[in-house]
Amino acid sequence: MTSPQARQVTLADVDPSASMVMSEFFRTYTEEIGKLTGLLHKCDGLRIGEQEFMKRCARLGKAHFDRQPIDLQAVFKNLSTHNVITMADIEWLMDYCTREKPSRDVTLRPSEESREARAKASRARALQAFKTLMQHKRDSIVVAWREVLDPEGRGQITAQEFKEGAQQLHFKGDVADVWDALVFDQGRSQNRFPREGEEDDYDEDEDEGEYRLKLADLEPATVECLEAWKRQAALRYGSLAKAFEDMESELKPLVSKEEFWHFCGEIAYTHNKRLLWDVLDDRDVGSILLTDIDRKAAAKAFTEDDIRIATKKHAKLTQVDRGRITIRERAVKQCGANKRNPEELKSSLQGLMTQLEARFNSPVRAWASVLDPKNKGKVKPDDFLVGCAVGGYRGSRSKLLKELKLEKDASVRLKSLAPKALEECKSFKQRATGKIGTVVKSMETEAPGPAAKKKAGISMNMDSFTQVCSRIGYEGDPRKIFTHFDVGGGGSVNSKLLRGMDASGKDDKVVATVVKKHHETRQKRIQQSAVEKAVPPVKQLTEKQDGFLIAGREKRGKKLQLEARKKEFLLFVAKEIGSLARAWRLAFDPENRGEVDVNAFVSGLQRCGYLDVNAKKEDVEKAKELFELFADEETGAVTLQILDPRTTKALYQFRCRVAGRYGGVKEAFLEFDPGGDGTVTAEQFRHMCHEAKTTDNIRRLLEYLDPNDEEEISLDLIDEEAAAQAKEFAQSVQEAREKKMEIDKKKGRLHMKTPPPRVGVVVGPKARKKARERDSGQQGLEELKRRLIREHGTLVRAWQKELQPEDAEEVVTFEAFQGLFQAKGINGEAQAAWDAIERESDSSLTLLEFDPDVDADLHELRARMVERYGTMVNAFDELDEDESYELDQKGFLNLCYECQFRRNERRLFAYLSSEQGQRVRLDAIDGEAVEAVKLKREKDAEAKDPEADGTELATRSSRAGTTAPVAGAGDAARAFREQLQRKFGSMIRAWRMIDWMGKVALTKQEFLKALPAVGYAGNAANLWSSLGVQEGGLVSLRHLDPQVFMLLVGLRNGCEQRGGLEKVFSQSDHFARVEFFALCRKVRMPKPTWARLFEQLDAKGAGSVSWEDVRFLEEQWTWVDEDEDPLDEPTPIRNPSGTRTLPPELPGSPQRVAGSGHLCLSSKPRIITGMKKSNSLPAITPGIRDNWNDRHHIPDTRYNKDTQLLHLMSCVLTKDRDRIKRKVAAKMVEVPTMQWLEENMPRGLEDEEDDEGDEEDSDFG
């Protein structure tokens, strides 16, 4: 007998076709698409339905050249479990198709991991089903937790409580699987939910280590929603407390649902706000407390009283209706609304009648309209069913005929279909007999209109018919009778029909009579319509068409005539004036009113020549007709928009493009008209059009804006409002510029405001146009100059070599110029070139006239020398060391380099040099300055003894390096101080630029090395000698400007008498100009020195002086017996071995160390002053800052400029207001209010009030 392990049963044994299909599907999917696990990618719950499966595997269901299509339906049927494919099914298929052939001794058993995975997936499905049930039953998981699972609000529940809650929700699944999916699978506990039979005596109180389930475990999104809300609020407002303060709510910290959701929108909260509200509103009262969100932040934002009051109000609130129903309740409600009453489906006949009454309002009207349209009185069953279908009946036809109880081959009549309607009409006929005739006749008599028409009857609406029913005493519903009689549905009944009911007759024939009358009337109307629509005879039709043709031709001829006149007028204007826009400006609207009336239009026609001034009356009338052709129907006036719409459109387009390019029309006007003149040139306007990209209408706009070709355009014509604003703004800028210029003039800085020269060469069409406009003489002159420069280098050298003027005036005549012109072979006439030169005399020519750039070079050199040396006298005194009053070429070039002369220095040297061309006399540059230098040197020589003069002269001649100052050395120091004062405005600021390392006193090498930093380019050796420093000594601020230093000494000594410099300046953070002048008055400084001392100490340009600005006097200088010495180090530093100690300059000052080692240990670090507090660490108390601008997203326009500014000043820039509040609050804490009033209230005020009170008492006796 075979062993059980010898044979294994597989799917191929049970269902070979299924095994083949599954294997083929697995092989094809992996080859063409990829891994089989990707089938469940991005699926809800790692499961996939049939529709999604067919969609993702659609390509496998199509035939391919090397395979047959896969039967996807069979694959899904065999692979799915409970009509879905899960990850377990995918894993099974992968194991089945990739398995190895098992050996005979191996038994196929599922592994422990596979079983656990399947069980885990089953528990996950159970958890999802439980959550879905909670949402269906209680609208959300949070509400179900609060109402069912945790009704006591403890925040956590046991396993037994969870089981009881699931039973209350009527959960049909396994509660143990749900609990294990929440607790065991998530690793929250190692204990599983007790199964049935495992622990019958299970008691949660005995198990102290049992895990208790929380809402966050069941719905993790609740925690994430709350944390995300806090993060977003803090990100938007800076902190959670600030967010609570700015939240818009009337009863903060009590917030309603609408207010909370509005705040969520403000902070751009993107999570589930409905879920967040369900978590916070645990009592379903429609309001929450902000303390429930964050108690600490709420305590910072609100007072304890506000929190206590809000808590009491919240406790008094009652539960409100949530306003939402569950999915089950909604489904029941919809089913109840759509469910039909069984009585309505009981009878098909009744359903037909109900449908006919709903559509036609009356069965009689339905019978005449669709059931019996030919008025036969009866219809066959087949025709009746057709009429029912037309009326909208979709029920059972056999049942309908059965309910009518028709005999064989019988027809359907109205009385068998609607007996009730016939009975109503019969009762009305019985009541109206003998009465209705008199009533209707009386109403016809009262009705307006001729009597002949009244005989045919009048139309009676519902109100008139109701009056008839009340007069004859009919007690039924008049609306139903009116609907039955109104067969056509026109809303009226003919009175003749009612008069016919007065005679006695068969009462049951009244409906037939009404229907018959309606049919006859309708037939007459149809016949009448056919007659009207019938084609008339040919002759009559031809005559009618001829009449239409004649009228149309007359109308078209008149229209063409008007169009011809209009075209003639437009062509005349275009020919005579050029364009309609120019004609409008020059003739029709010269005053720029915007519109013209008929008189102004006629005057415009006369101005443009279209109408004579003494025109006849007929011509004037034609002109007025032309005006009516153009005039607006509403205003009765002619505008440019009507006459030339293209120009108006071009102007509007220009404004829009300019606003987009420059940010506004006003900004564009300021760009091209910075002076605010209100006009721009035509060239500037063209450039503006090119910048705004509106080049297609430049000519049209220029003809409108500049009709007289004056090359000047008024900006008012483009945009009057923007032009006014631009002019006002430009005037304010000009006033500010003039004030700035006055300040610069007072401080001597006008030379620094010179605009730089224009760099570059004009090229392009404009340059070519200017070149074409030049005459032949100008071109010949330029060609002559180019050849002379090519041969001699400069025009000056060419003047000296070629022309060689012999007279003392150095002028040449036309004959010499003509000879040079012809000698160089220039094409053109010499006379034209001679006339192209701008000359003062008609018969002679000078060098400056022939080369005007030489004069500009000379003026530039003088200006640079004054800027460098202060005055020309100082410059010549320093340059002329040998008293020769001459400079060779090298010295002149060095002078140009030192003064930073940027023009052609060699051309200027050739112009100023003597005949030999080797030296330049200084009087050729400035003769008056040379005379002043000579006079000064004579006075200095007279003041000195002859021996000293000889020594000094010898020293100057030999240029030997000595410690004694050379001639003009004092002027060098004075010029250096003036340069520093002009550039920095303060000598202290200039000294800090020189002493950038903070050494206080500098050696000669350090001082000379720092001079380029302040822009000094003069003789450094002369400057050092002029400062009066001893050989090997140090220079400090005292040597740089002794007068400023003495002012500082006086200020320090005066403050020393009042407790010291630090004590005086610590009384206030900053001393403004007025406060500093008051301080100078207290320390008894001379009044003329106050302003200069303030400017020197205000080295930072802050407009105030503080202790940081004057502390260097105490920290960097030692004061002994009113003597001041520079302090380089707090304590002396010993010199390294092998170094030389420089002798101290002043008594008591520390010795400086000469040289520095490889580690630069002798270098002294700079003194750090005014270091601000670090911002990298968080402050203990929050600093004062401006509020968030909640209107930052609204762009500024000219329409909301005032609103934006008011909002910015009142709601955003609140830093100063908060600072004042803090100061006032601190002052109120320091000094009580009553004490402050007693100290600051004016004396006598209380006595006067007491006196007034006494007088009042005396008045009342």
From TrEMBL:
Domain EF-hand per the UniProt entry, residue ranges: 660-695
Spans annotated as Disordered: 750-780, 937-965, 1123-1157, 1235-1261
InterPro entries: EF-hand-dom_pair, EF_hand_dom
Compositional bias of kind Acidic residues: 1246-1261
SMART domains reported for this sequence: EFh (SM00054)
Extent of Basic and acidic residues compositional bias: 937-947
One Gene Ontology term of the molecular function aspect: calcium ion binding
Domain of life: Eukaryota
Protein name: EF-hand domain-containing protein
Organism (species): Alexandrium monilatum
Lineage: Eukaryota, Sar, Alveolata, Dinophyceae, Gonyaulacales
